[in-house]
Amino acid sequence: MKHSILLVGTGALATLFAARLSEAGHHVSMLGTWKDGLASLKEKGARIVDADGKEHAFRVHATNDTREVSGAKHAIVLVKSWQTERVARQLKDVLAPDGIALTLQNGLGNRETLARDLGA
């Protein structure tokens, strides 16, 4: 079953996950604030280099506008810890009532912050 997946973040790990999920046939949206990263994703897609040095680009929807990704059922959070509070507030408005958020962040307290704002 193919899903529509929201990745929150536009850094290296979010781009890697976006590329691999898009490659697997899922519709991928990325929500972020990094202007240069968003511009590159919009223009060139989520790009990765394989073990042989070949570059691959995968189409993703990249935006800084939460309205464009509202109603998300699946969200993966890949932002720096200091951004988690803001992201939790955004996800509260963006996630579908039966949506789920998964954090793949480093650091302490991120899960608790998301659980507090989104519910456990």
CATH topology: Rossmann fold
For the sheet with most strands, the description reads: 5 strands, parallel
| Terminal Cα span | 25 Å
Secondary-structure-based class equals: alpha/beta
CATH class: Alpha Beta
Could you explain how this protein is built, in words?
By secondary structure, the protein is of the alpha/beta class. The protein has one domain (4-118): 3-Layer(aba) Sandwich (Rossmann fold), CATH 3.40.50. The chain has four helices and seven strands, in the order E-H-E-H-E-E-E-E-H-E-H. The protein has a five-stranded parallel beta sheet, sandwiched between helices. Helix 3 links the parallel strand 6 (72-77) and strand 7 (95-103). It is globular and about 45 Å long. The two termini are 25 Å apart.
Task: From the structure above, extract its key features.
two-stranded antiparallel sheet; Rossmann fold; 4 helices; 120 residues
Write a brief caption for the model.
The protein is of the alpha/beta class and 120 residues long.
What's the helix and strand layout?
Blueprint (H helix, E strand, L loop, with lengths): L3 E5 L3 H12 L3 E5 L3 H10 L1 E4 L5 E4 L2 E3 L8 E6 L6 H11 E9 L6 H9 L2
Parallel strand pairs: 1-2, 1-6, 2-5, 6-7
Antiparallel strand pairs: 3-4
Helix pairs in contact: 3-4
